Amino acid sequence: MKSIDIEQHINKLLDLSESLSGHLRKREVQFLASLPFIRFEGEILEIGSFKGKSTIILAKAAEKSGTNRIFACDPLSLSCSTDPNDATKEELPEIFYNNLKTYNVKQIVNFNQMKSHDLAKSWNKPLKVLWIDGDHTYPGVLSDLMLFQDYLTPGAIVCFHDVLHGFDGPIRTFLEKVLLSDLFGDCGFCGSIGWGQFLGKTPVSSKQWKNKLSLYSKLSRMVPFVLQKNNGLKSNEHLCRFFRSLIPHRAISPVQWLKERNSYLM
């Protein structure tokens, strides 16, 4: 598929996202819309769907890329303390399924209305994209990564939502299991999404370690503020925002980003 076609389609999805209710900023929508164009073998798995905004964006991009399906998982029960509060557990399933139908992606989305640890019991497919946006507690995010990490194919992308938004699960898991891990090479941020490219047996280069440790140094300064806030302690929000501003998290250039990620094949 030509670069200009990919870019035009992603721009259309950015426009589409304006009509969808959810918790994704424009640059994050652009990032998610780029993921299905990763040229590796494997499936796309979303953990945490809520009203379906990210589900629809991923499905529309997957259809255009030729992948033609994604997998998604959410109990739709709002049973976690970190779940959004702009819907009730009684109305959420109807909202979600209606959105899939309205935006004509129901046939593309293999949806599993269950918790991720239940899906993991029967999961046996390789993954090229693992999008983690469910339970934002530390045990929850860590479990989501550990349950499915062994299915990542070399070159696959794992990404976490809300790494920079005050939840201890995404930030701690990203720090410990991606930035400090020798399993992931290129890493970065787009909005509040933290992402890493799985290497498999390929060693992390010195350039990649330099970038990862630089990100670790910047990101780790936010952890005390996040833990203070989550444990009811007084936190300096202004200083936390300052440290957050030092972390590169601007919008990506989809075509260039994909070129760099897909170069892992070479």
Relevant terms:
266 residues; alpha/beta; seven-stranded mixed sheet; 11 helices; globular
Give a topology summary.
Elements: H1 3-17, H2 26-34, E1 43-47, H3 53-65, E2 70-73, H4 92-102, E3 109-112, H5 116-120, E4 127-132, H6 138-148, E5 152-160, H7 168-179, E6 184-190, E7 193-198, H8 206-220, H9 223-230, H10 237-245, H11 254-262
Polypeptide structure, described:
This protein has eleven helices and seven strands. By secondary structure, it is α/β, with parallel strands linked by helices. The protein has a seven-stranded mixed β-sheet, sandwiched between helices. Helix 2 runs parallel beside helix 3 and helix 6 packs parallel to helix 7. The longest helix is centred in the N-terminal third of the chain and has 15 residues. The model has no long low-confidence stretch (mean pLDDT 95).
